[in-house]
Amino acid sequence: MKIFIPTPLRVYSNKQDSVSVSATTVGEALNALTAKHPDLKKQLYSDEGKLRSFVNVYLNDEDIRYLPEKDATKVSEKDALSIIPSIAGGC
Amino acid sequence: MLKLNEQVYDAIRRHGEETYPFECCGVLLGQSVDGVNEVEDAVRAGNTRTDSARNRYQIAPQELIRIQRQGRERGLDIIGFYHSHPDHPARWSKTDFAEAHWLGCSYVITAVEEGIAQATNSFLLTGTGEDDKAFEDEAVEVAALEAERC
Which candidate, B101, B93, B96, places its Cα nearest to that of B132? Predict the structure, then answer.
């Protein structure tokens, strides 16, 4: 399956805008991604191993935080993960 | 440096005027070439901070995914974002900085005073992560559109 990498993180994925991994669950896919590109791990996860609060990961159009089975959600080759850092602000 | 044509520049500013007194927001699509963010298009986005839209904005991740997908189909990347500051200077705030995570991208801010766009400034988010990120003032080059040939 494909994992789409946002612009600011492509420096850690050999400038690729997507990475293909083999996985059967969301968790496996993310582990495969950071195994392929170890420098991504610190950008995505805190020292406690949790996804950083401003890092949103979507399985197709759903936020993985709200999936009933979260990281254990099954995925297929047709699915895609998107990593999307938050965008917000104000005066 | 941020490069954009006058049509995109005007569209960004007009958006801020239309949403006044609330903050507008949107996504800049283009290419990053040798450290210069060249904008091809500005895509309006919804402000999900309806609870505090006068001084806060947020773009839903689902909308970013959609815009990113559309950009990909056109060979364009997300290279920045824009929003407006109603009756407030066109400079990044503490909130803007705390919520900025798209390293290497340009954050464009337009001051809109009493419904009229004033200054439009751009700030490049530099650094390698949350620990060393910083906003740097970025020059904005607005190119005139070429006149159509009859």
Answer: B101
